Amino acid sequence: MGNNKKRRAPEVDTRKFRKKTSILTYEGIKYVDYKDVNLLRKFMSERAKIRQRLVTGNSQKQQREIAKAIRIAREMALLPFNVRQVTSKTKKRRDGDDEGTLDGAERRERGERPERGDRGPRGDRPERAPRADQAPAPAPEAITPEASAVDVEAQELIAAEAVGAGEEA
Questions:
Q1: pLDDT tens digits for 84-99?
Q2: Is 77 left (phi over 0), alpha (psi -120 to 50) or beta?
Q3: Counting beta carbons within 10 angstroms of the beta carbon of residue 107, is it exposed (0 to 12), middle (13 to 18) or buried (19 or more)?
Q4: How far apart are CA 49 and CA 54, in angstroms?
Q5: pTM of model > 0.70
Q6: For tag attachment on the chain, is the N or C end more exposed, with fewer CB atoms within 10 Å?
Protein backbone atom coordinates (compact mmCIF):
# COMPACT_ATOMS: atom_id res chain seq x y z
CA MET A 1 0.00 0.00 0.00
CA GLY A 2 1.81 2.94 -1.25
CA ASN A 3 1.11 6.56 -1.06
CA ASN A 4 -0.97 7.46 -4.12
CA LYS A 5 -0.55 11.21 -3.67
CA LYS A 6 1.64 12.84 -6.23
CA ARG A 7 4.51 14.84 -4.96
CA ARG A 8 4.63 18.41 -6.06
CA ALA A 9 7.71 20.34 -6.94
CA PRO A 10 8.48 23.00 -4.34
CA GLU A 11 6.99 26.34 -5.28
CA VAL A 12 9.61 28.85 -6.22
CA ASP A 13 8.94 32.43 -5.26
CA THR A 14 10.09 34.61 -8.11
CA ARG A 15 9.85 37.84 -6.07
CA LYS A 16 13.07 39.11 -4.62
CA PHE A 17 13.11 39.73 -0.89
CA ARG A 18 14.59 43.08 0.03
CA LYS A 19 15.38 43.78 3.66
CA LYS A 20 14.04 47.08 4.89
CA THR A 21 16.76 49.63 5.60
CA SER A 22 16.81 51.36 8.94
CA ILE A 23 16.25 55.09 9.29
CA LEU A 24 19.38 55.22 11.42
CA THR A 25 21.62 53.79 8.71
CA TYR A 26 19.87 55.79 5.96
CA GLU A 27 20.45 59.10 7.80
CA GLY A 28 23.87 58.07 9.14
CA ILE A 29 23.00 58.41 12.82
CA LYS A 30 25.67 56.84 15.02
CA TYR A 31 24.33 57.73 18.48
CA VAL A 32 20.65 57.67 19.53
CA ASP A 33 19.93 60.44 22.02
CA TYR A 34 16.93 60.17 24.34
CA LYS A 35 16.32 63.93 23.93
CA ASP A 36 15.77 63.58 20.17
CA VAL A 37 12.03 63.06 20.49
CA ASN A 38 11.25 63.51 16.79
CA LEU A 39 13.56 60.63 15.87
CA LEU A 40 12.23 58.38 18.63
CA ARG A 41 8.61 59.00 17.56
CA LYS A 42 9.43 57.42 14.18
CA PHE A 43 10.03 54.14 16.03
CA MET A 44 6.75 54.28 17.97
CA SER A 45 3.20 53.43 16.93
CA GLU A 46 0.16 55.70 17.37
CA ARG A 47 -0.52 54.02 20.68
CA ALA A 48 3.03 54.78 21.85
CA LYS A 49 4.31 51.21 21.54
CA ILE A 50 7.84 50.49 20.33
CA ARG A 51 7.75 49.13 16.79
CA GLN A 52 9.35 45.77 16.01
CA ARG A 53 12.61 45.25 14.16
CA LEU A 54 10.80 43.75 11.18
CA VAL A 55 8.78 46.94 10.81
CA THR A 56 11.60 49.44 11.35
CA GLY A 57 14.43 47.50 9.71
CA ASN A 58 16.79 48.06 12.64
CA SER A 59 19.58 45.68 13.52
CA GLN A 60 19.60 44.10 16.99
CA LYS A 61 22.05 46.65 18.31
CA GLN A 62 20.11 49.58 16.87
CA GLN A 63 16.83 48.23 18.24
CA ARG A 64 18.33 47.91 21.74
CA GLU A 65 19.62 51.50 21.57
CA ILE A 66 16.26 52.79 20.33
CA ALA A 67 14.32 50.89 23.02
CA LYS A 68 16.65 52.12 25.75
CA ALA A 69 16.40 55.74 24.55
CA ILE A 70 12.58 55.50 24.38
CA ARG A 71 12.43 54.10 27.92
CA ILE A 72 14.63 56.91 29.25
CA ALA A 73 12.60 59.53 27.37
CA ARG A 74 9.41 58.11 28.87
CA GLU A 75 10.88 58.34 32.36
CA MET A 76 11.87 61.95 31.69
CA ALA A 77 8.28 62.61 30.49
CA LEU A 78 9.44 63.52 26.99
CA LEU A 79 7.39 60.67 25.48
CA PRO A 80 4.11 59.15 26.67
CA PHE A 81 3.92 55.65 28.10
CA ASN A 82 0.60 55.16 26.34
CA VAL A 83 -1.92 57.23 24.45
CA ARG A 84 -5.44 57.37 25.81
CA GLN A 85 -7.92 56.12 23.26
CA VAL A 86 -11.29 57.83 23.49
CA THR A 87 -14.07 55.42 22.71
CA SER A 88 -17.68 56.50 22.53
CA LYS A 89 -20.22 54.16 23.99
CA THR A 90 -23.82 54.10 22.87
CA LYS A 91 -25.30 57.55 22.88
CA LYS A 92 -28.13 58.07 25.31
CA ARG A 93 -31.36 59.40 23.88
CA ARG A 94 -32.25 62.94 24.86
CA ASP A 95 -35.44 64.89 24.39
CA GLY A 96 -35.21 68.23 22.64
CA ASP A 97 -36.46 70.28 25.61
CA ASP A 98 -35.12 68.02 28.38
CA GLU A 99 -31.48 68.44 29.39
CA GLY A 100 -30.95 65.03 30.98
CA THR A 101 -31.74 61.49 30.05
CA LEU A 102 -34.97 59.74 30.89
CA ASP A 103 -35.19 58.14 34.28
CA GLY A 104 -36.77 54.76 34.95
CA ALA A 105 -40.27 56.07 35.71
CA GLU A 106 -40.38 58.13 32.51
CA ARG A 107 -39.21 55.12 30.50
CA ARG A 108 -41.91 52.93 32.01
CA GLU A 109 -44.54 55.57 31.20
CA ARG A 110 -43.41 55.57 27.58
CA GLY A 111 -43.45 51.79 27.50
CA GLU A 112 -39.67 51.47 27.10
CA ARG A 113 -37.42 49.15 29.03
CA PRO A 114 -35.47 50.94 31.76
CA GLU A 115 -31.68 50.98 31.68
CA ARG A 116 -29.77 48.77 34.06
CA GLY A 117 -29.23 51.45 36.70
CA ASP A 118 -32.80 52.83 36.43
CA ARG A 119 -34.61 49.73 37.62
CA GLY A 120 -36.86 50.04 40.63
CA PRO A 121 -36.55 48.13 43.88
CA ARG A 122 -37.79 44.92 42.29
CA GLY A 123 -36.09 45.18 38.95
CA ASP A 124 -38.22 45.14 35.81
CA ARG A 125 -41.17 43.31 37.33
CA PRO A 126 -44.45 45.17 37.92
CA GLU A 127 -45.71 45.56 41.48
CA ARG A 128 -48.04 42.76 42.54
CA ALA A 129 -51.30 43.28 44.38
CA PRO A 130 -51.26 42.05 47.99
CA ARG A 131 -52.72 38.63 48.69
CA ALA A 132 -56.15 38.36 50.25
CA ASP A 133 -54.80 37.01 53.55
CA GLN A 134 -52.32 39.89 53.98
CA ALA A 135 -53.34 43.21 55.42
CA PRO A 136 -52.38 46.19 53.27
CA ALA A 137 -49.25 47.96 54.48
CA PRO A 138 -49.62 51.54 55.75
CA ALA A 139 -48.77 54.16 53.16
CA PRO A 140 -45.22 55.50 53.68
CA GLU A 141 -46.25 58.91 52.34
CA ALA A 142 -48.37 59.67 55.40
CA ILE A 143 -47.33 63.20 56.32
CA THR A 144 -47.70 64.36 59.88
CA PRO A 145 -48.40 68.03 60.65
CA GLU A 146 -44.95 68.37 62.21
CA ALA A 147 -43.28 67.04 59.03
CA SER A 148 -45.21 69.43 56.77
CA ALA A 149 -44.20 72.38 58.96
CA VAL A 150 -40.56 71.33 58.70
CA ASP A 151 -40.86 71.06 54.91
CA VAL A 152 -42.38 74.54 54.65
CA GLU A 153 -39.62 75.92 56.87
CA ALA A 154 -36.93 74.24 54.73
CA GLN A 155 -38.42 75.67 51.54
CA GLU A 156 -38.40 79.17 53.06
CA LEU A 157 -34.72 78.78 54.05
CA ILE A 158 -33.78 77.61 50.56
CA ALA A 159 -35.64 80.57 49.02
CA ALA A 160 -33.93 83.00 51.43
CA GLU A 161 -30.49 81.61 50.58
CA ALA A 162 -31.23 81.87 46.85
CA VAL A 163 -32.28 85.53 47.23
CA GLY A 164 -29.21 86.20 49.38
CA ALA A 165 -26.97 84.73 46.68
CA GLY A 166 -28.49 87.06 44.07
CA GLU A 167 -30.82 84.53 42.47
CA GLU A 168 -34.55 84.86 42.15
CA ALA A 169 -36.65 82.20 43.85
A1: 877 777 666 555 555 5
A2: left
A3: middle
A4: 14
A5: no
A6: N
